Every structure is written in structure tokens, then in C-alpha cells.
Amino acid sequence: MLLSRLFRSLPLLLLSACLGCVPDARAAPGIVGPVVVDGLSDAAAQRAGVLPAAHADLRHPAHSDQGRILFVLASSKVHGSSTLPASISFGEVVHAWDTFHAAGYAVDFVSPDGGEVPILDRYVGKDMEPRRKDERIMRGLRHTARPAQIDPSRYRAVYYVGGSNAIYGVPEHPVLQRIAMHVYERNGGVVSAVCHGTAGLVNLKLADGQPLVAGKRITGYPEEHERQDEPYFKQFPFLIRKTVESRGGLFHALDGDQAYIEVDGRVVTGQNYASAKQVAQAVVDILRRQAARPPVRGAKKA
């Protein structure tokens, strides 16, 4: 009797064993499971506010994804053709990221070369040092997207980060220029910058060929505040105030280190490091006003 029951159960045992040998459906061809990024799923990384470009195809349209801000950073580790070290301004990233994140916006990072951007210790104040352990931000700064990976239809605003390297590689990059102007003209979005990040605006042109800054109130880090007798200054390919004015912009700056911003339509600029939070908040305010009325599409100039 016992042997008979064993023979009757044998087919069930064999079926169970075979089922146990079937690969996980997530590994089967044509079925893709969650992408894992440094221990986080892609969904968790997006909730944290950033998904590294190495694990996300940012080129595909995401028309339901209306709450993203694109941070534009420079890749250069040196000033011009010298060996003088250069860096992004870490605090200008953090203060703006905190403001956008608190307002419910996700942030992506792009740089001319993609990958990790330079952060020099001297550009990280004591108050910012603990944030170097904040993986929500650091993961994005280690894995910035390349410009070709970016789908500009995803973004409500671009934010040009300053730092000593912001004047190299970003202002002349044609794909970054097209991204910014798509966000501004086709998405009806905001173009913003802080400190040396204003260098990224000087070559932007509207569809009619006019400079974006023409006739607009603009601020940024002016050359009169630079240490002009230092070797780094001799590497600058252009001067921010002089170039903005040559493009028809109305450049304003204050003496001293106090925060100062200019808001002219959908262009927001800040003079210095202390202005980063105010720039981000001004961008949020504009986007909230837009959200209270039908979306603007195909705006030519504002």
C-alpha cells in the first residue's frame, strides 16, 4: 500500500522539480525586471530624486513625467589648457536640490562628458561636508548623463550650476544648447543659472536667432569680482558680464557676497553661491504659477 502511494505521488514530485528549474520570469527573454542601481531599484532611485543615466534611458519621451529639473554641470577638472584644478560648486547643487526636492520635483544631472564631475574639497564648506554622504545626490554626481542621453521633453526647467569649471565646455556645447532651448521654447519651461553657471546662458539663442539674454535682466559672477591677478583668470575664454552685455543683456550685480537674483520672465539668474536657494525657489514659484493655468506650448519669448 505504501509503495503504491509512492508511485502515485511520483509524477507530482517530478512536476514540482521541473517547475523549480524554470528560470525566474524576470530573466526570461523580453521580460525586464527592476534595474538595480548601487543597491536601489530604479523606482527607489527615482523616489530619491535621481536615477543614474547609466541605468536609465533618458532619451525616451516621458510625457506623464512633468516634474523634473535638469541640472547642467561642467566636466572639466582643470582651468582651460592649464593644470590648475577646477570644480563644480557642490553647495550650489545641494541648496538647489533641497529646494526642488522639497517642492516635489525630481532632479537629473547632465554634463558634457557624462560620468563623475569634479568636486574639490575647498569648494565644500563645513556645513556641506556631511552631504557628501548623501547618496541621493552623490549617486547622480558620479553618474551624470551625457547630453545625447537626455530627452528634453521630460523637463520643466534647466539649472546651470556654477563653480570654477562652469565656463569651460558647457557654454559652447551644441547639444546642451538645444536641450535648454527646447525646455524654454517648446516646453514653456524655465532657464536658470547661478554664479559662474550664467556662462552657460551666453550662447543660447531663440528660434528666431536672437540671444536668449537680449533685453533681459541677468546676473552672475562678474569679472570685477574675480582675482584677476591669479593664473586661473588668464584661462577664461570669455568674461561673463562683458559677454552678456555684448549679447544685449542687461547685466546687474551687487558689491559684496550677499544673495542677489534677477527674474525676467522665465529666465532666473543668481549672482553667487549665496543665491542658489533663492534661484531654485524662484524657479519653483514660476512653475507653480504655470501649474495654476493651462500649460504654455510653443512660447517664442517671455
Automatic annotation (TrEMBL):
Q: Where is the signal peptide?
A: 1-27
Pfam families for this protein: DJ-1_PfpI
UniProt keyword annotations, A-Z: Glutamine amidotransferase, Lyase, Signal, Stress response
Q: Name one GO biological process term.
A: methylglyoxal catabolic process to D-lactate via S-lactoyl-glutathione
The record's InterPro entries line, in alphabetical order, gives: Class_I_gatase-like, DJ-1/PfpI, Prot/Nucl_acid_deglycase
Give the CDD domains listed for this entry.
GATase1_Hsp31_like (cd03141)
Q: Name one GO molecular function term.
A: glyoxalase III activity
- Specify the protein name: Type 1 glutamine amidotransferase domain-containing protein
* Species of origin: Lysobacter firmicutimachus
